[in-house]
Amino acid sequence: MESETRNCKYCKTQFEITEREMSMYEKINLMIPDICVPCRWKQHMAFWPFGKFRTGVSDLSGERLITVLPANARYPIYTSKEWWSDAWDAMTHGQDYDSSRSFFDQLKELQEKVPRPHQQGAQSLNCDWCDDAWESKNCYLSRSTLRAENLFYGYRSIDCKDSIDVSHVFTLDQCYDCTYCFTSYNLFFSKNCRDCLDSAFLFDCRNSNHCFMCWNLRGKSYCIENVQYTKEAYEEKMKEINFGSNIELQKYKDRYEEILRKNVVHRENFNIKTYDSLGTYMTNCKNCVNVFSWEDSENCTNCLRGLKSKDSIDMVGCWNMELSGNDSCCTNAYDLKYSIWCDGARYSEYCDQCVEIENCFGCVSLRKKKYCILNKQYSKEEYEVLKEKIISDMKERGEYGQFPPYSMGLCPYNFSTSAIYSPDVTKEYVEALRGYWEDNKDEKIEGLTTEQIPDSITEVDESFSKQALICPITGWRYNIAEGELAFLKRKNISIPRVHFDVRTKNRLSILSQTKSEAYTCTYCSKNIIAYYPKDWGYEYIACEHCYLKEIA
Fold this sequence. Notes:
By secondary structure, the chain is an alpha/beta fold. Among the domains are: about 150 residues; about 120 residues. Helices cover about 20% and strands about 30% of the residues.
């Protein structure tokens, strides 16, 4: 199939639909999009609340709840327990299709009548102050976790335990302030590391232990700034290092950033066990193109943050998908299109928050249903006829094949995951597309400013966990939780000076780069594609061959 060039109807830039994309759209029976990939992702992630944790009450029972959904939500919010119960029935909100009106307007009306659970996730214990937590225990202010325990401020953390301020990490224990790290213990202030322990300020190190301020190491011990020491000399030098002082800690952070710019050999991508693929931060992937932060998948295209998927295209935040496309935050689905927050859906389109459905179109919060349209039951024959009628009407209006519009978003854009990956998007842009924006700032709050926080962790006692602190960036109030303070004192780490959401967003900055840049390999002068913005100032960027040669 031939490629095709189009103009994005949102940002007006020219983009190409490649032969590969054409083939996948035909295979999955998807409409060819009229917006570019970055604009598709912005819209997908606008339906993924990052939010701000708040307390509220259930619209069903008045029971207290904790959620990241907005206080002025367009839809009812029930506690998750209530949402999963038999106390209500989404089918009672079913409505007839009106061919004289926009289908999206009708779907939005349904969406605004049907309740949503206050949190995503299931089978977790004592994770009230979390969202999207699965099979986790005793976690606090964490999002997108699976099988985590005693985790504070985690984000996309899987199989992690007794750790704080970690993002996009797998199998960590006793770790602090780590990003994209795997199978490590007692690791602090590090990025892109695997199988490391008892170390701090590492970048791209593997199977290393007792190292400080090091980069590109493999199987090393007792190193400081990549210089080898004896065990005794290393331990003597480390006695001078004090993470407990904020002043000293900031010096180490500044030195670390300098090393990233001037010393580290940055490979053209951070793909591991990945073949015939284009993108970065992929693990165990094959034949994936324009894919980022993705694991254990095959034949995927234009996908961001997910895993275990096959033959799918244009997806964000999706797991265990096959022959699906143009979806956001869906899991365990087959042949699912244009949908959000569905789990276990098959042969369905334009569905929202549905579970174990099959052959449904334009439904919200249904569970274990077949042949439904706008939450109304039909026979198989009636369903097929009406579905084709709706699709025909949508095509005439230019709606079919479009992802649900910004006006159906679940939260203000600036409190969505999209704001992390596309922070330059303006309020005017979002509102022009009929999306939502909220200027949120705590008013009349009291607490310690950054300057008033003691420099050393040794200067605070257990009562400090009751002290309100004021973030200098957001103006929001935050505190140091009792378990967090015990961890910081035990590890001798200074009190963090900004709100935990700011810390999370800062950690995600290295993972949110999806725009490729043309570079020349520092060593062999080969033309390569990498995902480091030029203004990061990295001096050593290498093709994979030279990278492996240099770090050997």
